[in-house]
Amino acid sequence: MQASVAIQVLPQVKSTEEVVRVVDAVIDYIKGTGLSYYVGPFETTIEGNYEELMEIVKNCQLIAVKEGAPSVISYVKIFFNPDGGVLTIEEKISKHH
């Protein structure tokens, strides 16, 4: 594993229910990638290959729009180590859960 990303997708829709619906569709997409991920209250963290993660980040925007958001704001954090050695989600949070 050479990277991890944390993404918060904020669809620009009119109701809280719509926000939840669109974000749920994005999370369903992330689940379907087969990569290791962790859904938190503000963002979802995903681990994997850098190129694959960047494609996922791109697709999260497209899914939000496809689900009806006229626009979307996303906050993305990226940790990249081309030689590997990225701390896993489990290593980062297991002692807290």
Structure report:
- The protein is 40% helix and 27% strand.
- It has three helices and four strands.
- Strands 2-3-1-4 form a four-stranded antiparallel sheet.
- Helix 1 packs antiparallel against helix 2 (50-66).
- The model has no long low-confidence stretch (mean pLDDT 96).
What is the topological layout?
Blueprint: E1 3-11, H1 16-32, E2 37-39, E3 44-48, H2 50-66, E4 72-80, H3 89-93
Antiparallel strand pairs: 1-3, 1-4, 2-3
**Main sheet summary:** 4 strands, antiparallel
User: How large, in whole angstroms, is the Cα Rg?
Assistant: 14 Å
Question: Could you tell me how far the N terminus lies from the C terminus, measured between alpha carbons in angstroms?
Answer: 23 Å
- Fraction of residues in helix: 40-55%
Which structural category do the helix and sheet elements fall into? alpha+beta
Average pLDDT reading:
96
Spatial strand order of the main sheet: 2-3-1-4
The count of strands amounts to: 4
> How do the SSEs run, as a string of H and E?
EHEEHEH
Global shape = globular
Number of helices: 3
Strand percentage, roughly? Answer: 25-35%
Report low-confidence residues grouped into runs of 5 or more. Answer: none
